[in-house]
Structure formats: C-alpha cells, structure tokens
Sequence to fold (551 residues):
Amino acid sequence: MNLNTIKSDFPVFAQYPELAYLDNSATTQKPKAVLDAVLQYYRAENANPLRGLYDLSVRATEVYENARIAVQKFIGAASEREIIFTRNATESLNLIVYSWGRTNLHADDEILVLISEHHSNLLPWQNLSRETGAKLRFLECDEFGAYTPESLRNALTPRTKIFAAAQISNIFGRLNPISEFAEICHKNGTVIVCDGAQSVPHIPVDVQALGVDFLACSGHKMLAPMGIGVLYGKEELLAQMPPFLYGGEMIEYVTRESATYAELPHKFEAGTVNAAGAAGLHAAIDYIRSIGFDAITAREAALTKLAFDAVKEIPHVRIIGAETADEHHGILTFTVDGVHPHDIAAVFDSDNIAIRAGHHCAQPLHKFLGVPSTARMSIAFYNDEQDIERFINTLKSIRRRMGYDR
Amino acid sequence: MTDNFYDEVLLDHNLHPLHLHELPTATCSHAGMNPSCGDEITLHLDLNGGVIADGSFTGVGCAISQASADIMLDLIIGRTPHDALHLTDLFMKMIGGEISQDELDELEEAGALQNISKMPARVKCAVLSWRTLHHLLTDYLANQN
Fold:
C-alpha cells in the first residue's frame, strides 16, 4: 500500500483538492470502499434485519451480524455477544450509565472520572451522581496531561464503584495506561469504563489485553459512516444489566403486563437497527486492516513529529500537553498568544486548512489548565507532509495577520 | 490566501479596545455568553438621566466579539436607549444580509462587520455584544414602566 497516493481512495479530496483536512479527531473522511458498502447495502441487501422470514431479510441480517463479528475481532472481544451497536460512543457511554449505573450506583458510592474526559464520558456520570446521590470525583493530571497508576491508586476508595477514562485524550493526544488502570481498579472492586473514541481508529486495541469492563467507540471517527457506534462490555456484566431502550426487536415474549427480553446483544438494540451503517463500519475495518496498524501508526507518528518539531519552534505558540511528539498520537492542541482560537481557526480556514477551535467538549479540563479555549489540529494516516507544511506556514503567519509585530 | 485577514478597523479595535474596562459609575450590567465558543462578555452601562452616559465591557472572546463590542460602545454612548435599540435592529439586519445603504451608513464603523454575514460560523461572535445590549436595554425599559 502506497501511503502517498492514499488520498485518492477518499472521494472528498477529489472534490476539494486544496483542502488540508486536519480535524480527524472530530470526524474522519470516508474512503470509497465505505461509501460503496453503504450503497451496496441499500441497492442489494436492504430489508428489516433480524425479523424477516424471506431471503432478502436473511441477507440483511447476515450483513449486520457479519459486521458485529468484524468488530469483535477488530477489538479482540471474547464473543460477539459482547458487541452492542449504538449510534456513537456518546450513546454507548449513556447506555452504561443508564443501565449499569442506575442499577448499581447508590448514595455514598463514588464515581471517579479523569479531569480530561470528553463531556460524553463526564456529563452522563454527572447526571447519574445527581440522580443517585453518588459522589462524582475527578482524577487530575500533571501539567503535561499525564496520569500515573499511583495517582489512581491513591484516589480510589472502597466506595469507588466506577472509574471512567479515555484511552487517548482528545486534547492531549496522550495514551493513558489503561491496562494498569484496569488491574488497579479490579483489585479495588471498581468497574472500569474506557472511552476508545480516539484510540480505536489509530492504534491496535485489544479489550481483553486491556482488561477493561466496558469500551465505547464511534464509527465516524474511524472512516465509517456517522450514526454507527460500538459498546463493548464483558458478557457477565451485560447479562445482568437491564435494557437501555425498550421496543421492537429486543424482546422474546410480550404480554399486556410484562415481557422477557432477547439474549445478548439484541437486548440492547431496540428498534430497527442501522444495518447500512454497520456495513459501512465493516468496510472501514477491512480497509484499516488492509493498510495495517504498523503502517498507520508509523505514518501518523512521523506526521505528528514533523508538526510538533516545527510548532515548538514558533514564537508565541504553546502546545498543550507533553513536551515530546511521541506522546501526542496525531493530536496537537495549542494556543497563540494574543489570538483567540476562533480567529486562529478562521485564518486557517481562509488558507483551506480545517482545524478545530473551542473547548473541544472538555470545559472542566480547560478551566483546570487555565485557558478559556484552544485550537487543535489532528492527523490521520491519509494526511501527507504537504498538509503539515501548509499547517506550519499558516501558523507562523497568524500573529502578523492579526495585526501584531508589524 | 488573504493576508490581511480581518479588516484593519476590526484588528485595531481588538488590539486597542477603548472600552474594555470596569465601569464604576455603571447603573446596569448584563452578561452575555456564547456557550459553544466560550466567548463571555459583560456589558456595563451608566444610564443616569435616561441616556447612555457611559459604557464599557469586560470579559474574554475572539477578535470579532471583542471588536464588535468596542465598536458598538463607540456608537451608542451618548444615545438614548431607544436609539441604541434601533441601531441593534439595524446591526441584526446587516448580519442577516438585508440592509440598505442608508441604514448601513447609520451603523458607521460597525459596518466593518458586514462581511460576517458571509461567515456563518462567526455570526454568533459578532452579535454577542449587541444581543447582550438588547437584553440589558429591554430589561431596563421594562423596569421604567
């Protein structure tokens, strides 16, 4: 696979040849293989999956369930019953909170969350804390965005029922020591929830090796369509949890007063499912596998280093997080003295470079870091050196273009 | 590549705002915020005598929100609340892209923000101070009656 011609796999870059797309942590672009799989589903495989008694519905069911097996293998789950399809990581995390959390959390219990969590892995817990009276506590990082196993060990108490942590922070790009966290949590009888939205697309993730109890990720951040996401949960936990949404396709037997619910994983997939999205996710996984994580991680690391080394030499620019490129995993969050991040993003936009600005759904972290908002560029393997060079050139010009140092 | 990214008027008001300070004589203050961008400003007006005798703003935000607030205060200090609300209406019309040349002239330097109507992502930044002014003055007038 020639990574230098890989952009030609992505139709959006034929449409916008001048675009340097560096907002991959928000969502990735989609390769033709994924678009084709979605179209193929609706052209040749579409019927309501899981309930039909005719050929085409059986075919739709196969497409949907084959996608589940692809996900299971991709993240190393022990069984396909441990893979629940959702809309996105946010819905997966809400499912855990509403189903597992409401059943198992009580007043006086504690919920521990990283200060750097995305709102999707914070607000559901905050709400659960209000509902149950359980106490919400935060594990704080150092100034470089690092958390140590010791800090977790010290923060856990006998009352800590749940610990929620992203594997890779969407601000720092830093890889958290999740397998060590899981070991520490389990010794304490604490359930660990991992947000894999930023890690699953970029590094090999094996849920059994990590030892996490739950993991959430989004299809759209890993080349797949929007509207398909994944919740992994250990079977012994999922089996005991009540349904999250009630309705069609998640039942076994229904009377006027009560119902028995379907087996895993369908217990958690009420209503008509997103089979086309699942087909797209399956194609995305096949595409990622065809390139391979060795090539993907090497490419993203090289581009990150190219950007990091240049950015750290630009006066008045400050990178948030670690002081070495290898702790950034394709994510550079930064500030420019005297220039608001929205103006930074606007200048980049005028040069046809897409980056993100704001608080990136992590307001408590920004308060903790003492910056109101930041700008962020984020890399995928289909970016190239030219994208990075254009990013660097524009970043160098920003203060002058905002009226400084003239 | 547009090298002078923002109009010089905007850059100047952003880098050297006249009205970014506390206002000890203020009779009314009102906070405005754009939750999605984190822009936060508080508008302070001295409405002694039924006119905007003086005004200032405090807070943080992008160049467009800061410059817009500073230009707005230049324009409304010395006017009656009714006149200031009229200018607010004109500003909103301008951002909506439906203003006449005569109306645009009334907005003086605030006309420098006309092109924001072509930058949908930044409209909220440009109107933050004006929206805040509108809240403050309608509350003020309601309390007068």
